[in-house]
Amino acid sequence: MKTRTTLWMLVWLLCSLSFQDVMAQEIAINYDENKIPAYELPDPLLMNNGEKVKNARQWTHERRAEILEIFAQEMYGHIPARPEGLHFKKMSEETVYQGLGIRKVVRIYLDKAEQHWFDILIHLPKNVKHPVPMFAGLNFKGNDATLDERASSRWPYEQILKEGFGVATAWRDAIEPDGRDSKIEETENVCKDGGVRAWYNKGGDWGAIAAWAWGLSCMYDYLATDSSVDASKIAVIGHSRLGKAALWAGANDTRFAMVVSNNSGCCGAAISRRVIGENFARINTSFPHWFTREFDKYMHKEANFPADQHGLVALVAPRPLYIASATEDLWADPKGEWLSALLVAPVYKLFGKEGVKADYPAPDAPEMDGVVAYHVRTGKHDITAYDWEQYVSFAKRNYKSE
Ligand code: GTR
Questions:
Q1: pLDDT tens digit string along 297-335?
Q2: Whose CA is closest to atom 12 on ligand 1?
Q3: Does residue 337's CB lie within 6 angstroms of at least one atom of ligand 1?
Q4: In the chain, what are the helix, strand and coil shares in percent, each to the nearest 5?
C-alpha cells in the first residue's frame, strides 16, 4: 500500500513539472567569479562598418539605431507604432492620504471600438500648482494590489507624493499575460483574447518584454495629455522582468526623460558574457515568451550575441540612467549590473557627461553624482522604499540641473 502511495506521489510530481521546468533544471548555473569564461565585450562605439564613433552626432544619428536594431532583431523583438484608435477615459478620481494626493484611474482604450483596453492607476500630489514629474512603471499583481498594505514598500505612494512626484502604474498582464505566471483569469481587459500580441501587430516577432514596453509608451501617450503632468519629466521604472521592459521602453522611446532599472538582471542591465547567475539558456527555457524566436540561437552562446547589455543601457544616453542591485540577488548578478553602469561611460562622455566611479561601491552607498547612478542595497531581490528614495533624489538632482 505504502509503495503504491509513493508511486502515485512520484507520478503526480512528474506530471506537475512542465517540460520547461525539467529542461531548466538541467542548465548549469555558475555563481563563482573564478569560473567566469574569458570574454571580450563588443564596443558600443564601434560601428557595424568597423569605424569608431567620434562624436555625439554620429552616435545619435548612426550608431544608436544599429544597436537598437540588434536588440530588436535578436532579443526582444520590434515595438510596433501606437494603435490608431488610442484614446483615454477617466474612470474615477478621489482624494487620498489625508488630502496629500489624488488617485485616479484612466482607461487606455487601444481601439476606436473600445474592445481592447487597460487601466492605469495614477497618484498625483494634490494642491500643487505646476505640472509634476512622474514615474511610470508596470506592476506584477494588478493595480489594486499596489494599494495593499503588503505592497507599501514596493509602491510607497505617500513617500513619493510628499517629494512632489506622481506615479503611474499598469498591470503587466493587462497588456500581455506573463505565460504561466499570469493571473489573467481574474479580470477582463485587453487580455480577454490573449494579450496585446494576439490582437495587435499579429504575426510580428515580438516577445512579452517588447509588448510591455509598448504598453509603457501607451501610458506615456496618456500622461503627455494630462495637464497635471510635466511630460518632459517622466521616468520609466521597473523591477526585475519589468526592469527589462523599462530598459527596452526607455531605449526605444526617448520621450522618457530618465530610466530606472531595479534588479533587472539577465537580459536587463547585467553583462551577459559573465555567464554568472541566470544565463541565456536558462532564461529562454523558463520564459521563452519574453523573447523573439531569433534569441533561441544564443542559448549557451552568450559570446555570439552581437552586443552586450551595456550596449542596451547606452541607448539611454544622454538621459539620466539609474541601475540598482541587491547584495543577495546573485541570480541577477549585481556585479554585472554595475559593470554596465560603468562601461556606458564612453557613450555619455560623447555628450560631456560623467559615468560612475571605477570601484564597485559598498552596500547602501548610492553613487549618483553624475548622470549615471548605481547602488547595491543590502538584501534580497526586490524594490523597496529605500530604492525609491534614491530614485527620487536622483531625479530631483537631474531635473534641477537642466
Ligand atoms: C525570475 C527570472 C528573472 C527575473 C525575475 C523576476 O524568475 O529568472 O529574470 O526577471 O524572475 O521578474 O522577478
A1: 999 999 999 999 999 999 999 999 999 999 999 999 999
A2: 241
A3: no
A4: 40, 20, 40
